[in-house]
Amino acid sequence: MTNLNPSAKAMVPFVSVDNMMRLIHHTGVENMLRDLAAYVEEDFRRWELFDKTPRVASHSDVGVIELMPTSDGEAYGFKYVNGHPKNTSEGLQTVTAFGLLADVYTGYPVLLTEMTMLTALRTAATSAMVAKYLAPKDAHTMAMIGNGAQSEFQTLAMKAICGLKSVRLYDQDPKATEKCARNLAGCGLEVVKCKTPEEAIEGAQILTTCTADKQYATILSDNMVGPGVHINAIGGDCPGKTELAAGILSRSDVFVEFPPQTRIEGEIQQMPEDFEVTEMWQVITGQKQGRRDDRQITLFDSVGFAIEDFSALRYIRDQIKGSEFFIELDMLADPDDPRDLFGMLQRAGTAHPA
User: Hey, what domains does the chain have and what are their CATH numbers?
Assistant: First the structure.
């Protein structure tokens, strides 16, 4: 008899882009950013439990395609993600992604989801969670340099988690700045459009750089950065792509996710291999110090790490239970007799003749 009713384990919940956006609106963007930050922080506290490896990257002349896997021993997760800066000029997203969460005990997937939208949220949530530990006390103004697809998420996460009151926007493309300002209108923040990066950083305690060029660049020069600020550097995320002058790194205390990956992809690829960094999980667990004083420059050299995506996948798995924000996919062959996969195929031919 053909198995026309797969078991529950064979049906995999799938969150489409449409359902992800419905879930975000149902939850509220700022609420979801806070929730994601809490999940990421929880997993940073148990960092040592996870499998950790630099992402598997396939580079080309026009971009990169990456797989980002990890496991805590009970669940396994991975994200597929690309980074193609040239896509914007062709009307396409620079970054797209999807992800999967699986049960380690059976190896069966338990969630498949879009992660283009979710990655934007988790990246911003991670930035703000880190800023909570590293930014100056009562920081209220952020310079947002690079006003592309990530900029609104970064700004709203800093508002929701760190109490940001004002954002100063700059992009070399004025249309991007206009877009960002328009999208942030009415969100409860003072939004200031700036014509130069120097103007954007005036009075800002948090400096976020998020540009897309796949090249060594100097978005912030050494003389632009004074004492006491927190730099949230999230644009550098592959070999040969940086945003900060090396002199800034020399004057900063640099905090990273996973050093073996950051030394390949982050701002510190410019520095010697023994350049000192602090792993962020050690700050969160109290093993290392974060911000010491009002004059210290802290720098989060963020390239994105698989554990943050794992946290986001866990969060979505928990949120969709009993909800209407997913469909079930018949993804796994589920024969009545697990040893008789071919028999299942034969019986399907009888049930559904050509």
Answer: 8-117+308-351 (3.30.1780.10), 126-305 (3.40.50.720)
